[in-house]
Amino acid sequence: MSKQFDVIVIGAGPGGYIAAIRAAQLGKNVACIDAWSTTAGTPAPGGTCTNVGCIPSKALLQSSEHFEHAKLHFADHGISTGEVAMDVSKMIARKDAIVKQNNDGILYLFKKNKVTFFHGTASFVKAVDGGYEIRVAGKAEETLVGAQIVVATGSNARALPGLPFDEDKVLSNDGALRVGATPKKLALIGAGVIGLEMGSVWRRLGAEVTVLEGAPAFLSAVDEQIAKEAKKSFDKQGLKIELGVKIDNVDTSGAGVKLEYTNAKGEAQVLEADKLVVSIGRVPNTNGLNAEAVGLQLDERGAIVVDGDCKTNLPGVWAVGDVVRGPMLAHKAEEEGVAVAERIAGQHGHVNFATIPWVIYTNPEIAWVGRTEQQLKADGVKYKAGSFPFLANGRARALGDTTGMVKFLADAETDEILGVHMVGPMVSELISEAVVAMEFKASSEDIARICHAHPSLSEATKEAALAVDKRTLNF
């Protein structure tokens, strides 16, 4: 006999587990199905974000940053350490422990909120009276029926054509997080978020890192001034980034990986490395969902087609996160998950795509919200700009990290904030003030007149807002 639920959520990543919890909070009888497993075969909810994405990458970034500080910068503070060494296996074990804490935390939240969890792969079977029949293939096969279905199956790493991931020499983000020892030479294809973060981790630990990017511009989605500042810092660190390249051939038959490519000047080049990380984007994951059984519409990329409210072409079926249109960001998925749960309950869930923040957790960090200067120019919008360097910020000087700046873009007539762009220390935390300001349609003057703690990095935000009106106080 099938088990009946008001809401069945397929996937327990950021979009799925949050949707399940919010629906349960709103009084629904909820099931959540997820197939991720630990090496021991136990449930590992949290999706790509928790298992092979956001959380483990930040753990490795933190460990490698500590190592680099101890090796290069502690002496500036009068701290003598002697020779510093990194135990990579212990670093990976710490990362794995943090991942498990997050997995266990989600299972606890399900129990707390009375969400029934099923460990296995979910697929549509058919439409039935009152909803849809869902099969769960796991240790014990289950048949569920849900009145409302939320698909939150996430995304998978995109491989180079003809070059599948073996997670030994050719690595996805998953393999890049499980490297057992620091490679002497590491190659990465793709200078996006994953490429830059993983490149930063292994460069700090002593690898010679080369990043090959097909686009002619560095981080073209980022404000151009901010991207140039970041590139200058990465170059200084020794992270080699080549732009405008074309990959011609990848040979994995030897001990390592041999890449043949054409550089931006049209010259043939050869790069040999111990490992290759391919980070050229992600593709929506609908594998095994059996969408065709119920006529669920997919687009040419394999993404589930949804409207502005995350409704699919089927009544009572919704989809959120990486498996639908929009930025593939964990926090975007969470917001959609909450909104869908609230819409199912008859409320008016809301997601504002214009104020979703973006962060790259390199050193310096890069963060932004809203439109870039090049976008405003292309759209013919009249604007004012103001920026302030961390070089003139007292807290940044005390930290010993004065790289970068904060930049405001505001409407030339109304002064409404149109975009805020940052590169520098801890800007992943500073960007939230800008998001709040833009949600409330604030002006740059509003931020300029708010008292910020001294000394703090956030004073750079205030000063950049003052700079829009050309009245900075400390620069």
Give a description of the structure.
Pfam families: Pyr_redox_2 (PF07992), Pyr_redox_dim (PF02852). It catalyses: N(6)-[(R)-dihydrolipoyl]-L-lysyl-[protein] + NAD(+) = N(6)-[(R)-lipoyl]-L-lysyl-[protein] + NADH + H(+). By secondary structure, the chain is α/β, with parallel strands linked by helices. It has helices at 14-25, 47-52, 54-73, 88-112, 173-176, 193-204, 224-237, 330-344, 373-379, 394-399, 427-439, 444-448, 459-468, and strands spanning 3-10, 30-34, 116-119, 121-128, 131-137, 142-151, 155-157, 170-171, 185-189, 208-212, 240-242, 246-251, 257-262, 268-273, 275-278, 282-284, 317-319, 358-360, 365-370, 383-389, 405-411, 417-424. The strands form five sheets. Strands 1, 2, 3, 4, 5, 6 and 17 form a seven-stranded mixed sheet that branches. It is globular, with a radius of gyration of 24 Å. The termini are far apart.
